[in-house]
Write a structure and sequence with these properties.
single chain; Aspartate Aminotransferase, domain 1; 3 domains; seven-stranded mixed sheet; three-stranded antiparallel sheet; 9% strand; binds pyridoxal-5'-phosphate
Length: 464
C-alpha cells in the first residue's frame, strides 16, 4: 500500500496543525449559556485528524484519483452512454447557479426561456407534440409515461387494460416501472436474430393490453426493423406504444420515435445530451407525448418545480453547441465506433448476433468459451490497463454478456488502444488465466465481496 493511500486518521499525529489562527476571544459566559439552552453541547473535543496542509492536499488529491470517470479515461459502459461532457456545458450552467425555485417568475425569464426552448427542441428531435421536463431520471420518466397511459385508458372508461408488454431484452427498469404503476408485465420473446418476435407478439394482444414498452435500437444495439408493424399491431388492439429513450443517441437527427409510431417516451438527458452521471446521478428524464396524450400532460405533477434544472441546462448547451447538422453526426459516429470495435474483436470474443449494430453491441464472453476465465475476469483485467469495464452480465439473454458502447466522443486512437488491450486480455486468458482470475492488480481495491460491500458497507472509521 502506498503511504498516502492511508486514511487521513492514520496520517494524524497529535498536536500537528495545518494553520495558525489568533487565540479565540469568544465570551466564555455566552458560550456557557448556549450550552444550557441547546442541550446538545459536545462534552469532549471532536476527534478530528491532526495533519499538515500538504497531508490534507495529498489526501484529497489521492482520493480523487482512486475514482474512474469519463475525464480519466475511456468508459465504454454499454447502455449508459458515457460520452465526454464538454466543459462548456458547465460554464454555461454557472450563470444559472444563483436562481432559487421560489423567486418571482418575472425575475427568472432566462430560465423559463431555456425550459421552453428545450421542450421545443426535444419535440423536434423526437417527433413528439409535447414534453414535460419534470422527471428526474430515465426510470422516473418511465413511471411518468406509464401513468399517462393509465390515465388515457381510464379517462375513456377503458378500465380493463391492465397489462404492459415488454421484450425479454429490456432494461430492468421497464418491468419495474410497469409494476410500480400497477400494471401486469407480459414478456415477449426475441428471435434468434435479437429482434422482437412478431409471431410471439400477436397472441399477446387483446382488450387487456394497456401498451408496449420498447427501446429502438434495442438493448443489443440492433434496430427493430419491424417497428412500424409492431406499432400498428399494438395500436390495432387499442394499446399505446412507449419508447424507452435511453438508446436515442444513434437516432439523433436521423430517425424519430414519433415517426415510428410511439405515443409516449422519455429521453435520458444525462446520457444522450451529456451530463456527468457516473455513480448514479444526477439525471433528467423528460417525457414526450403524441397528440393523443397531450391533454393529460398539463395535469401532471411528478416532481417539485421544474425537474433537475442543471441537467436540462447542460443538455440545452450541448444541443445548441452542436446545432442541427452536427447533432446528426453524433449518432453516426457512435454507430461507426461500435461497429469498428465489434468487427475488430469478433475473432477473440464470441459475437452471438453477427450483424450491423447501432451505438452498442454485446459479446458473449471469450471466443471458444474462455475455459475458466469469465466475463467478470475480463472486466476486472481491463481496469489494470486503465479502461473502465463495459457493462457485464446484461442483457440477460447471454450468460457471459459484455456490452460495449464506445460513444462518438472517442478518437480512433483511443478505440485502437482499447481493441489492442481487449486482444491481449483474450491472449492472456489462454496463456496465463491466473492473472485474469486475480485481476485487477493495479487498483486501490481488487475484488471486494460485492454482496458485503452493498449490504454491510464499512463507511466510518472506528477510533481505537
Ligand atoms: C439507463 C437506462 C434506463 C434508466 O435510466 P435511469 O436514468 O438510469 O433511470 C432505462 N432503459 C435503458 C435502456 C437504459 O440504458
Amino acid at each position: 500500500m502506498r503511504y498516502y493511500d492511508r486514511l487521513i486518521f492514520e496520517l494524524s499525529r497529535k498536536g500537528r496543525i495545518g494553520f495558525s489562527l489568533p487565540a479565540c476571544d469568544a465570551d466564555p459566559v455566552k458560550a456557557e449559556t448556549a450550552k444550557g439552552v441547546t442541550g446538545i453541547w459536545r462534552e469532549s473535543p471532536l476527534d478530528l485528524p491532526e495533519v499538515s496542509e500538504p497531508d490534507v492536499v495529498r489526501h484529497y488529491t489521492n482520493l480523487s484519483q482512486m475514482n474512474f470517470g469519463v475525464d480519466t479515461g475511456f468508459y465504454p459502459l454499454g447502455s449508459c452512454t458515457m460520452k465526454y461532457n464538454p466543459k462548456l456545458n458547465e460554464e454555461v450552467l454557472q450563470s444559472f447557479l444563483g436562481l432559487h425555485p421560489l423567486q418571482p417568475e418575472s425575475t427568472a425569464g432566462g430560465a423559463e426561456e431555456l425550459l421552453s426552448f428545450m421542450k421545443k427542441a426535444l419535440c423536434e428531435i423526437c417527433g413528439m407534440k409535447g414534453f414535460t421536463l419534470q422527471p428526474c431520471a430515465g426510470a422516473h420518466g418511465e413511471l411518468t409515461g406509464l401513468m399517462l397511459i393509465r390515465e388515457y385508458h381510464r379517462s375513456r372508461g377503458d378500465e380493463a387494460r391492465c397489462k404492459v408488454i415488454i421484450p425479454d431484452s429490456a432494461h430492468g427498469t421497464n418491468p419495474a416501472s410497469a409494476a410500480a404503476c400497477g400494471f401486469e408485465v407480459v414478456e415477449v420473446k426475441s428471435r434468434p436474430d435479437g429482434l422482437v418476435d412478431i409471431d410471439a407478439l400477436r397472441p399477446l394482444l387483446g382488450p387487456d393490453i394497456a401498451g408496449m414498452m420498447m427501446t429502438n435500437p434495442n438493448t443489443l444495439g440492433l434496430f427493430e426493423k419491424d417497428i412500424l408493424e409492431i406499432a400498428s399491431l399494438v395500436h390495432g388492439c387499442g394499446g399505446l406504444m412507449y419508447y424507452d429513450g435511453a438508446n436515442l443517441n444513434p437516432l439523433l437527427g436521423i430517425a424519430r420515435p414519433g415517426d415510428m409510431g410511439f405515443d409516449v417516451m422519455h429521453v435520458n438527458l444525462h446520457k444522450t445530451f451529456s451530463t456527468p452521471h457516473g455513480g448514479g446521478g444526477p439525471g433528467s428524464g423528460p417525457v414526450g407525448v403524441s397528440e393523443k396524450l397531450l391533454p393529460y400532460l398539463d395535469k401532471l405533477k411528478v416532481s417539485g418545480f421544474h425537474g433537475n434544472f442543471g441537467v436540462i441546462a447542460r443538455a440545452c448547451a450541448y444541443i445548441l453547441s452542436l446545432g442541427r447538422e452536427h447533432l446528426a453526426e453524433a449518432g453516426t459516429f457512435a454507430t461507426l465506433s461500435a461497429n469498428y470495435i465489434k468487427e475488430s474483436l469478433k475473432d477473440c470474443y464470441r459475437l452471438p448476433i453477427d450483424s450491423v449494430c447501432k451505438h452498442e453491441f454485446v459479446f458473449d464472453g471469450l471466443a471458444g468459451g474462455g475455459g475458466d476465465v469469465t466475463t467478470l475476469d475480463v472486466a476486472k483485467r481491463l481496469l489494470d490497463y486503465g479502461f473502465h469495464a463495459p457493462t457485464i452480465y446484461f442483457p440477460l439473454l447471454f450468460h457471459q454478456a459484455i456490452m460495449i458502447e464506445p460513444t462518438e466522443t472517442e478518437s480512433k486512437e483511443t478505440l485502437d488502444a482499447f481493441i489492442e488491450v481487449m486482444r491481449s486480455i483474450a491472449h492472456e486468458a489462454s496463456r496465463e488465466p491466473e492473472v485474469l482470475r486475480t485481476a485487477p492488480h493495479n487498483t486501490p481495491v481488487s475484488r471486494p465481496d460485492e454482496t458485503a460491500a452493498a449490504r454491510q458497507p464499512v463507511l466510518k472509521y472506528e477510533f481505537r
